[in-house]
Amino acid sequence: MAFVQGGQLGARLVLITPPVKRFDHAGGSPKGRVELRWDSAQKPFRYDRAPALFASPRPGTPDLLPRLIGTIANTNRSSFDAKLASRFRARTSPLDHDMARELEAGFNDALKTAEPADFASHYADALPWCDGPTPASERQRDYRAKLEELKRAGGVSRRTGRCCK
Q: pTM to 2 decimals?
């Protein structure tokens, strides 16, 4: 899964997760809920240090993601950031193979040159701004409460398979 964060510096690729595991929960809505989990050892980039999706690395060089730009170019919005948001907001289906490889290659290039300070030490660091971030202990408490709620509503969650990047 890829996480793109918009903000004052434009659309930034903050994380591509390692392979994910899918868990279906029976409760919560008529169709239930789906939870995706991955190894959290890979930290997201800080928003201000994450690779930009629509900026050339050096003046006069091609854009970093020409396939992505080509896909959204004809979207009726005023900027590439708005076009991206319009086309990919809460996307639930995979990108085509070539575009996914392009995105992954750009992310991996950024990882190769990254310094430890480029990564978020707290979730809020991956956001462009944050007014009073929720402490990690509170997020964990809320997560456990949501899992318990889903179990009570429809039984124990079951693992249904493994997905890849």
A: 0.71
